[in-house]
């Protein structure tokens, strides 16, 4: 696992955008896994800028989003489909038929989840998966206790996650209780995982992810087993790491490893 610490959220976002852009230039038909939430907004902002100012080309890229609330239509302002359209897709030249966001409105959810997994496989698997982390250490909506081998499925959100998300809804009771999410096992099959975290509220979860035991109680900790995981943090999110000096030393010496 590579841990990169930047001074600010903006620098963290730019570093992440460089990694995504580099992957797209190396493989124009990249299969890109995407997350929603506050964390990747700066990354998406930078990718939009690169598209508009530097011609970064998304025309051959396929995207798969991690999750969606069950019961929300894509027109709902709090749906993840709506979030992605407004914060990324409508500003870049990704083809609409190459965008996958789980649907929150399907009737046969189990068959749908199996289909979503098949589409990922049919696209050749995810090359680069962007991830955030919840305060309870979740990735996608894989809440504590999710199997580290789990696949795309319906989950019940924790009260903590519902509380965290309540700020986006008019009334707390409007926050959906269920979601469709890629599983930890699905995420672990991505060739490269790129997790971003910023702010003091994530420091504890980040320390558990990087330095704690691998446990289903912190589903992000599964990334310790991933052959290519990159964690990019701002200073506040890195504050509780014990071996911070070493991670920075590795980063400073990265050119000797040809990275
Ligand atoms: C959303 C997702 C979630 C978020 C996490 C952090 O697609 O996968 O796991 O990444 O809840 O959310 P923010 O970035 O809003 O702190």
Description:
- α1 (9-26) packs across α2.
- α7 links the parallel β9 (192-197) and β10 (229-234).
- The model has no long low-confidence stretch (mean pLDDT 96).
- It contains nine helices and ten strands.
- It is globular.
- The protein has one domain: 3-Layer(aba) Sandwich (Rossmann fold).
- The strands form two sheets. It has a seven-stranded parallel β-sheet with strand order 1-10-9-6-2-3-5, sandwiched between helices. Strands 4-8-7 form a three-stranded antiparallel β-sheet.
- 34% of the residues lie in helices and 16% in strands.
- It has 259 residues and is an alpha/beta fold.
- Bound molecules: fructose -6-phosphate.
- The site of fructose -6-phosphate (F6R) has 13 residues, from loops.
- Fructose -6-phosphate (F6R) binds at residues 35-39, 66-67, 132-134, 138-140.
Bound molecules: fructose -6-phosphate
How many structural units, i.e. domains?
1
* CATH fold label: Rossmann fold
Number of helical stretches of at least 4 residues? 9
Q: Care to count the β-strands? A: 10
Low-confidence stretches: none
Q: Considering DSSP H and I runs of 4 or more, what fraction of the residues is helical?
A: 25-40%
Structural class: alpha/beta
- Strand order in space, largest sheet: 1-10-9-6-2-3-5
How much beta, percentage-wise?
15-25%
Describe the largest sheet.
7 strands, parallel
Mean pLDDT: 96
Gyration radius, in Å: 17 Å
- SSE string, helices as H and strands as E: EHEHEEHEHEEHEHEHEHH
């Amino acid at each position: 696992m590579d841990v990169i610490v930047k001074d600010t959220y903006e620098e963290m976002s730019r570093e992440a955008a460089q990694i995504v852009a580099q992957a797209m230039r190396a493989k124009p038909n990249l299969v890109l896994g995407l997350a929603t939430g506050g964390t990747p907004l700066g990354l998406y902002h930078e990718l939009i800028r690169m598209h508009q100012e530097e011609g970064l080309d998304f025309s051959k890229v396929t995207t798969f989003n991690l999750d969606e609330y069950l019961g929300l239509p894509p027109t709902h302002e709090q749906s993840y489909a709506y979030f992605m359209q407004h914060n990324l897709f409508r500003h870049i030249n990704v083809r609409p038929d190459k965008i996958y966001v789980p649907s929150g409105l399907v009737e046969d959810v189990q068959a749908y989840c199996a289909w979503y997994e098949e589409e990922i496989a049919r696209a050749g698997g995810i090359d680069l998966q962007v991830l955030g982390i919840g305060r309870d250490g979740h990735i996608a909506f894989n809440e504590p206790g999710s199997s580290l081998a789990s696949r795309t499925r319906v989950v019940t959100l924790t009260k903590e996650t519902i509380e965290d998300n309540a700020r986006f809804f008019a009334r707390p009771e409007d926050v959906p209780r269920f979601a469709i999410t890629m599983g930890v096992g699905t995420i672990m099959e991505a060739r490269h995982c790129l997790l971003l975290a910023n702010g003091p509220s994530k420091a504890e979860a980040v320390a558990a992810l990087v330095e704690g035991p691998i446990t289903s109680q912190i589903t992000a900790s599964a990334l310790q087993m991933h052959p290519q995981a990159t964690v990019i943090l701002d200073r506040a999110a890195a504050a509780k790491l014990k071996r911070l000096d070493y991670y920075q030393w590795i980063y400073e010496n990265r050119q000797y490893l040809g990275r």
